[in-house]
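Hey forum,

I'm writing up a methods section and want to include a predicted complex as supplementary material. The small molecule is 2-acetamido-2-deoxy-beta-D-glucopyranose. I've pasted the protein sequence and the SMILES. Can someone with a working setup run it? I'll credit the forum in the acknowledgements.
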Amino acid sequence: MKLILLSVVGLLLVVGEGTADRILSRRTKRELASPLHVGGIRDPFGSYCQRRGGCCPGRDDLCTVPYLDTICYCDLFCNRTVSDCCPDFWGHCLGVQPPFIGTCERNGNRFFTGQTYKENCNLCTCGTTGRWECEQHACLIESDMIRAVNRGNYGWKAANYSQFYGMTLDEGIRFRLGTQRPSRTIMNMNEIQMNMDPQTEQLPLYFNSVEKWPGKIHEPLDQGNCAASWAFSTAAVASDRISIQSMGHMTPQLSPQNLISCDTRNQGGCAGGRVDGAWWYLRRRGVVTEDCYPYRPPQQTPAEVGRCMMQSRSIGRGKRQATQRCPNTHNYHNDIYQSTPPYRLSSNEKEIMKEIMDNGPVQAIMEVHEDFFVYKSGIYKHTDVSFTKLPQYRKHGTHSVRIIGWGEERNFDGTSKKYWIAANSWGKNWGEDGYFRIARGDNECEIEAFVIGVWGRITMEDMHNHHHHHRRRHI
Ligand SMILES: *[C@@H]1O[C@H](CO)[C@@H](O)[C@H](O)[C@H]1NC(C)=O
Ligand SMILES: *[C@@H]1O[C@H](CO)[C@@H](O)[C@H](O)[C@H]1NC(C)=O
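Reply by user p_vandermeer:
Happy to help. Structure tokens for the complex are below, copy them as they are.
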């Protein structure tokens, strides 16, 4: 049986060659088509000719099957051009190995052309020559960078984070930051005049809002792969300020999702946004709490922003009321929280410190460089460990964070290292329980370049009402 089949194929081939010779004199579209399999067979184990129901003798330009975004042939003529046969032509029609399937080796296992594996953030494909061909992206977690930071005397330590492993550096910058640099007009916004003399004002060596205002400073959240630090830092600073200002009568954790989904005018949701736009929204529309409008970290990219589920309407005297129930159906407290207009602080370190000590945490814009992602502990300063690498390994993007305090660390030589204590929005397993310390006084990563403070909009009536809520719950 097998013998007969083989001789049939042989016969067909003879016929095929005869046809081909005749046709070669006038070159046709098919012969001029670009070869399908130059980079190795994609989908080498797919069934095409088999699913078509067989192979065609000689040349038959209608003997095709859809293949990826084009077509492939199952006629015997395709073997002459090699280029346009379906992946299973050789195996199915001729019973031989395709001429350009290579085998690659990995951990003692054999792989064929077209098979892949992922090495950190790069996809490696077994090429036709039997060599692995890997993408060359810079990854967010580079083990040599971690090693170099930890070996060097940089004042901080680096670590691997499983939530970043396998992402490219570009993806880290695209999905984990998300604050647009303020426009020139905003950057030129007047700084408030502080009633202090930076030279003579005595400020403590160490200050932490968490210790001065226990129970009123909110813990760092996790933005996940959503580039919305603009919403996270704004909501966090407003939450702390309202809690401090109301002396703990209200301690709302304001909802970043409310901003991401509803503050959509000139804002990019999970693709980045502006802090001035976020403050405008907090002032004019207001937002509810995180528990009322919970964060839904995106499961895929590009991230979906989600429909806005919470509008507010004016109820007079500048106050607003929610027009919907909480998206979280277990929560009945859909109170709207608002702020007053934000104010810009000067870049003077002392003035920023005084503002934090008097009024609470501030919002700061900063440039995040490649090494910041692997920060684990210590006083961060951008290092030179990637300076000798290709430019693709050295990238940065704009982020925003919440500064909650400061301190100083004594060096062995008697000098000291000054730092800010700041909250990030990459979860509590990142850095020092979600916080980081960064060099203070040198505008490190531009962290002192654009600092914002704000007041919550709180009336005596608010204090009374919320106080009541509070009391009633405890009786
Ligand atoms: C098909 O093409 C390959 C590679 O060019 C060649 O080695 C093989 O002999 C051809 N097979 C037939 C049956 O023509
Ligand atoms: C980092 O962690 C991942 C798993 O979370 C692991 O697969 C990887 O080998 C680690 N990389 C380094 C450089 O330690």
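Some notes you might quote in the supplement: The radius of gyration is 31 Å. Residues 2-33+43-86 form one domain.
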